[in-house]
Amino acid sequence: MNGADEAVDTLVVGHVTRDRLDTGVFPGGTAYYAALTHAAFGSRVLLNTRADPSFDVAEVLAQTVAGIEVHVTPDEVTTEFENRYDASGQRTQWVHAVAGSVAPSHQLPAVDVLHLAPVLGEVDPTVWIDAVDARVVTLSVQGWLRRLVPQTSSTAAQVVRTAWAPASELLSRVHLVVLSREEAGVDGLLARLRDHVETVVVTDAEHGCRVFSSGKTSHVGIYPARVVDPTGAGDTFAATMAHGLARGLDAPVAAQLGAAAASISIEATGAAALRRLREAEARATSIVITSE
After folding, report:
1. Most distant CA pair in the chain: distance in Å?
2. 240 to 61, 118, 248, 288: CA distances (angstroms)
3. What is the sign of the dihedral through the CA atoms of 41, 44, 48 and 53?
4. Among residues 150, 13, 157, 141, which one has the least CA distance to residue 80?
5. Which of 40, 120, 155, 161 has the fewest Cβ atoms within 10 angstroms?
6. Residues 195 and 223: beta-carbon distance below 8 Å
7. Please, are residues 240 and 246 in contact by the beta-carbon 8 Å criterion?
8. Number of structural domains the chain divides into
9. Residues with a known catalytic role
10. pTM
11. How far apart are CA 26 and CA 44, in angstroms?
12. Per the domain annotation, does 286 fall within a domain?
């Protein structure tokens, strides 16, 4: 793929979280997977996040991919999620602590990619787009589609889906939005995004994804892989695609690379497989792109 060795400067914004699982507490969050993905492809990455001082974000990231620069706004807490499953396997998400918003608080460089990746709406996209000169602005919308419902019987709050109606003026400044099929169905969000954003991608797990870009629609398939842990696959896809666009790839080809990267990410627990993302270049060549 063209431009594979070009350096890409990337700024990622959002909470790196603590995630409670049956086997322990692990790092997570869209920004966590996005920063690791960008870095694994050779980007120079700056992550802006917010956490309590006991949570060493830089060290957590370095355990998977070295060299990520981190700017942490100190907080009394780190955002903490828990996934709970009922007898049928249905998942609900709960939050035990929420750090504050992540806002520009220092001199920010011009970058190739600005990737806004909140988990609970902690990022104001207009503020960051105003503050950063970026060639490719990417939104991972999941974090703006969540709200918390406090429970009287628990110290944790349940996560539920909510509508998000970003202004057209904001969306016209965005180059890429990636969202799942379920997210795309929220209150006409997909139509609004397609009206204003240069490239919109709807992912659908094993069914591949649809790419809406420059008035054309494409379907991009998948690379078959053995699923060990699907956590973060969508985040890996979005970050890889943004990286591809910054390298000059056409949108369907960037999505092809994203699908290949996602296939790698699910082959190990957590973020462990992300250090192998350079293998995505070879996998991408076997993923089919069709025009619709």
Report:
1. 55
2. 17, 17, 13, 17
3. positive
4. 157
5. 155
6. no
7. no
8. 1
9. 235
10. 0.94
11. 24
12. yes
